[in-house]
Amino acid sequence: MNSHERRIVERRWPHAIDIDNDDELLEQCSAWLHDNFGTSRFGRRHNPRWCFRLNYDYLGFAKYAIGAQIYFRKERDYLAFLLKWS
Fold first, then answer.
1. Beta-carbon contacts of residue 64 (< 8 Å; ≥ 6 apart)
2. Are the C-beta atoms of residues 47 and 34 closer than 8 Å to each other?
3. CB 71 within 8 A of CB 52
4. I want to staple 51 with a disulfide (CB 3.0 to 4.6 A). Which of 39, 40, 56, 58 is the partner?
5. CA 77/CA 29 separation, integer angstroms
6. DSSP letter, residue 45
7. pTM attached to this predicted model
8. pLDDT over threshold 70, residue 1
9. Is pLDDT at 83 greater than 90 in this prediction?
10. Helix (H/G/I), strand (E/B), else coil: 11
């Protein structure tokens, strides 16, 4: 996600959920989101229904992922995700 996409998501996408660093859960959630809501790529004129951003933490010069944030444009998509994964 580039800086322009990050600004759009943080300003206009009100529904977000944080997932802790569990690689297996992230893979399962990602597969389910791709199957049900399509791709998370930003197009020239088309925003996706969902996107994600990894949360990073720094240890000296190295950074490592400590989880992810998943953003949804619509409340019904957010609620469907919560019903499935909570």
1. 56, 57
2. no
3. yes
4. 40
5. 13
6. S
7. 0.79
8. no
9. yes
10. helix
CATH label of the domain that carries residue 71: 3.30.70
Query: What would the pLDDT profile of 3-25 be if each residue is shown by its tens digit?
Result: 777 777 777 788 888 888 777 88
Lookup result for tokens 């597969």 = 31
Q: Tell me the per-residue pLDDT of 39-66, one tens digit each, with 9 for 90 and over.
A: 888 877 778 888 888 888 888 888 887 8
Side-chain half-sphere CA neighbours of 78 within 13 A: 14
Report how many domains make up the chain: 1
* Residues of the domain holding 19: 3-85
pLDDT 10s digits, 21-41: 777 888 888 899 999 998 888
81 contact partners, CB below 8 Å, separation of at least 6: 17, 29, 33, 50, 70, 72
